[in-house]
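#data-curation
PF: Archiving a pair of folding outputs for the training set. Convention for this channel: one message per protein, sequence first, structure tokens after, nothing in between. First:
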Amino acid sequence: MARLFTCGFEFGELIEHNGVIIDESLITQAVQSTVVRSGTYAWKISAIAQGAVYVAAFSQVLAGNPQEVYVRIGFQYSLGVSDASTIFQPIVTLSDAAGNNHLTLALITSTARLNLYRGNTGSIGQTSGTLVGTGTVAFTSDVWHVIEFYAKIADSGGVATIKVSGITDIDFSGDTANSANEYVGTVFFGACGVSAAAEGAADYYYDDIAINDTTGASENTWPGLSGVYLLLPAADGNATTWTRSTGASNWALVDELPNNTTDYVSSSVADAIDQYTLTSLCPAINTINFIEPTFQAALGAAGSAGVFPLVRHSGSDFESASVIVAQATPNYILFKGEPIYTVLGGAGAWTPAQVNALEVGMKIK
């Protein structure tokens, strides 16, 4: 598999995960465009001053229950009051499929350093646990940091290594399992509210999230410091056989952020194809790790149908695995094709010029 999950919040809403959203009172979460690390959007959590712990979080369930994972998070925090005494702020928790939290990485805002805990309780490991590692890299508020987290879950021979912006900060060997299930089934991202009203409010920002396992030939180790960018439809492509709900151009009906249901393209014809050219990459980008065709879709009536993500490169169409759409309109769902690490029909990494020349679209099964 290699890359298991990529999330840059570039669709303008919290829809890229496959797990749950936890959105409790007195702490707010939203995808916003004011403070971002790369692309157009990032996720913001605001912890409001209070006397109890509340949570905002989302989860990603991992296929295959890998024993080893690499997690990357672009992270920034901003303290809203002069009293910066918040003791413990979880950032990411690795759990098994039964809900047992193996490891939680947290920011200690009074010291501006990371701590690593085993066996925390709560949805994002916000309470108790055993401290197994303390970081030395000092975080700066209102500055983006890249956290990379490698974990091998095991009672004996477990490993947890944390890098901050490429520098090793925590390196723990020993017991990293909090149950007999020595794997990562779910990853939780989020933050909790402050534990006492006197500690005040704070904002936490997430961007450029990635999860790798150790399989495959690509993206099977540290994700690195890269970002996530979305290229939107910019013009009609080679084939436009789906029906427009309005207007004269297919692409103009599928380029909104966030998605809406007031204009769209649709088809019920087998092998019907709709393709679009894309906006160009930022000129500063010179390395492409992979591309991932993505679309949102729904059915006009209850049932199911197959749709292929389609990528057109150098005059040839390449189909991804079939995706089953099983929801009725207007419940649009985000679908991602498999990451494409090397040039289609060729070899080697993608170049910016090749990516800028691609067309993407969908084909009815």
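PF: Second:
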Amino acid sequence: MGVSALDVAKYILKRQSVSKNWKCITNLKLQKILYYVQGYHLAFFNTPLFCEKISALQYWPVVKKVYQEYNSYWPNIIDEQYSDFNVYSLGLSEEQIKLIHSISDYYGRFSAFQLVDMTHNESPWIRVSEGGLKIGWDVEISHNQLFSFFKKQLS
């Protein structure tokens, strides 16, 4: 089932370094883009792109392993560029790679805090945060929640 979220993050960072339309990327913004890529991948392909769960923390949906990898940059811009990273080594189809491109290019144009506002007004986030701030590493935004929400976005 899928590739590692860290490899997807590295590819997003590589794309960010060559895109003229993107605003700078922080760990917060990277986490949001991973959330959108995973959600749309589920909606298009009926399967997750990466294996790791997405946890619900106070300001963001988070993939813990990716968060930990780039936490030393907090709150600064991640300057890793991964120019030698080869997305084709992941075994993804052309359609999957195109999806990563289109979703990351679209959401990459927004600031991290614009993305926070967007995700906090969407049903996957609202469902896990109902009843107060009952969120944390152990609270997962499930594939089913993501699939249901993003499938409707395609309609």
